[in-house]
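Lab notebook, bench 4. Still working through the backlog of constructs that have no structural model yet. Next entry is a single chain of 251 residues. Request: give me the structure tokens for it.
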Amino acid sequence: MMHLLDIISITRNDYDGICNTIRSSVGLRDVQGVRHIVIDGTETDCVQEVLKSFCYENGICFFGAPPSGIAPAFNFGLRETRGEWIWFLNGRDEVHPGLDPGNLIYILQQTRADVIIFEMEFMQSGKQYRHPPLRDLWPPVYNWIPHPATIIRRKVFEKYGLFDESYRIAMDGEFWFRALGNDVVVDMVSIPVVLYDESGISSSNQRSMAVEVTRILRRYLPAMVRMWLSSGQKIFNALRHFRKLSKTVPK
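Model written out:
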């Protein structure tokens, strides 16, 4: 049976963090067709404690997975999902308390987009993560697209593949270049949907993140150059078009 939304949370040895994440999704799980999938790579009895804590709640599915990294855990969750939409909400991140579940469900049901990029709020500092101005959106050379605030149709992964497991941290950045650089329709909604935990690996390990983003940029540099050349050609085509039009339309 197809669900509307599957929330995928990965965790490892963090009972308190994943419990907070699961509790934050209760308003969404009260909606029919929403599931919360938890992928636990814990090597202790933490997963059993989590199961005991939430065994009577609806809409939660638990899976144990070997502790092999973030991208493999993401892909494990993708293989278990049946939702039309996928939301990666990592352990310790939380659904934003100001999010109206009904509004989110309405957006998912009505949009024709394949990817929806929302905004987020930093948990510890309280700062708002806002979308960049239009001129800086693409290509995402500064890795600005926040995966915890981005909801993706499952068919995008079916068409363009899963996360590249050779990346330890920036696998989402590589996926954006691979998928969104094609015929993927994107909506941007300036509503915060997540409280983002600033102590996570991508925030605390900036050097490794920089190394991987550099690798992504080098990999997709030819595609970006082709895009810039194509954009320049469009400008010249537009100039010719409107110059010609201005001479044919009566004053």
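Notes after review: Residues 3-248 form a domain with the Spore Coat Polysaccharide Biosynthesis Protein SpsA; Chain A fold (CATH 3.90.550.10). The mean pLDDT is 86. Flag for follow-up if needed.
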